[in-house]
Amino acid sequence: MQREHATDDSAGSPEPGDSWGSDRRAFVASLGRAGAFAVAGSWLPSMGYAQAGRGPARAFLRRSPGRGDLDRRLLGSFLEHLGRAVYTGVYEPGSRLADAKGFRTDVAREVKDLGVPIVRYPGGNFVSGYNWLDGVGPKVQRPVVLDRAWNSLETNQLGTNEFLEWCGMVGTEPLLGMNFGTGTVEMAVAYVEYCNLARGSRWSELRRSHGYDRPHNVRYWCLGNEMDGPWQIGQLQAREYGRKARDAARQMRVIDPDLRLIACGSSGTFMPTYLIWDREVLEECYDQVDGISLHAYYGSTKEWSGNSTARFLAMNLDMERQIHEIAAVCDYVQALQRSSKRLWLSFDEWNVWYRARDAQSTDGRRGAAPRLLEEVYNLEDALLVGGFVNTLLRNSDRVRVACLAQLVNVIAPLVTNETGVLRQTTYYPYSWALRYARGRVLDLRVESETYRISADGLQADFARDASVPFIDLVATIDDAAGQAAVLVLNRDPDGEREVVLQWDARPRANV
Ligand code: AHR
């Protein structure tokens, strides 16, 4: 970590753009001002933050009357047929750690203990060349194919049914991805029929002939992956993709009206078509989808952070901004279409990923289960992952699904070898959120000293002159369990920071 924080000397002028509204202002005033000053950076008010002078940070917490319990799917993860994620990650027949079906029991135990609520599968880029039929039926008859996304051999020894069995075993819900690259609408719809229709049709009977008599009832589905990306197999133009998604979704809802369907949003803020893609896609398929995907990876590089720890640790605020921007596009299209439906967001790929990105780490060289994207994480990365979790929780009224990409071996909190499973640093903030963030996210206002970050020399989507609070905090309250949780990131590398919590009413809970 590099120490280069410059604290923000613009503190001291009166507070201008407080977006909290008059009732919230009265609430805060009743608790005492405690030295809140100017909001120099543009993202503070939208987060409920204000700049303060030196001294302890203060967090004012209260229940939001309109806010329901958070959707735990916000803390999901992702498993792609990529590198060693599936093979030797969750599935390794022949290993002394595997059960009779070939599942790694040590990994299954870790995932179950974590309590991961939803897992996206089977990709990622992989899904855009994947034929789901290759992965069902008797294993001896399944073909070995070349996965062109990662130039790796895919043995198909683990496919949809085995994945869904594994989900049952670890107590998670599946989020299945569909091939919108080489795949047709017909086969995407057939996939839903195979999984969810009880009996009596071509694809439902095929599933039954494979030994799965009862339908899997998979509810959450991704309509393709990163279809705007030039790297994506079968990349499409926004309107082409939007029409394909609409057509597929309409047919899928005939099979199962209870589906939750997620359209592909922009692959990231770096895309030249960022926001335009999202608008055009939604203009084509708004009425047939429930959510739109967001993806983002972050790193400590010259272009993204100027190799500065201070800038790196502020990157969850870039995530925050992306959420607000995509939400604005959704609301724009909603208004254009006079729709009563409000879309939610699925941040279904997010993580730190910047080291294992070269050809060596991304080209499988036609091997089976090659070592790809095996990023080794440090403390700095773990701190930022904590920040991402805070951002997701803060925006849980809009982001309903999110997936830490990924779960095992590939840019993952868990890493396997022949003898066991290791926890990386990033495991810890993720596991704490899974364990403690329950119930309702509290409305909050945080007043914290800030430091400046500068746009100089950074890639356009990370180039910001802004004020960043040293303290990043979010809180939940679970009345049923009688427990409150406060998740705090201290961005100050020079030491501890005091935080004063002020509750609007005494919590009926343990903190
Ligand atoms: O998670 C690794 C890759 O990153 C995924 O396959 C792709 O969707 C994204 O670009």
Strand runs, count: 21
Beta-strand percentage?
15-25%
Spans where pLDDT lies below 50 across 5 or more residues: 11-41
Major sheet strand order: 3-4-7-8-9-10-11-12
Helicity, as a percent range: 25-40%
Number of helices: 14
> Strand count, sense and closure of the main sheet?
8 strands, parallel, barrel
> What is the overall pLDDT average?
91
Bound molecules: alpha-L-arabinofuranose
What key phrases describe this protein's structure?
alpha/beta; 8-stranded parallel beta barrel; 4-stranded mixed sheet; 28% helix; 20% strand; globular; binds alpha-L-arabinofuranose
Structure commentary:
The protein is of the alpha/beta class. The protein is 28% helix and 20% strand. The chain is built from 14 helices and 21 strands. The protein has helices spanning 21-31, 44-47, 105-114, 160-170, 185-196, 202-209, 238-255, 276-285, 302-305, 309-312, 315-336, 359-362, 379-394, 427-436, and strands spanning 49-51, 57-62, 76-78, 118-121, 145-147, 152-154, 173-177, 220-223, 260-263, 291-298, 344-352, 399-404, 414-417, 420-423, 440-441, 443-448, 450-453, 466-469, 471-478, 483-490, 499-503. The strands form six sheets. It has an eight-stranded parallel beta barrel with strand order 3-4-7-8-9-10-11-12, surrounded by five helices. Strand 13 (414-417) and strand 14 form a beta hairpin. Helix 7 (238-255) packs parallel to helix 8 (276-285) and helix 11 runs parallel beside helix 13 (379-394). The longest helix has 22 residues, at 315-336. The radius of gyration is 23 Å and the shape is globular. The two termini are 31 Å apart. Mean pLDDT is 91; it is low at 11-41. Alpha-L-arabinofuranose (AHR) is lined by residues 80, 123-125, 225-226, 349, 405-406.
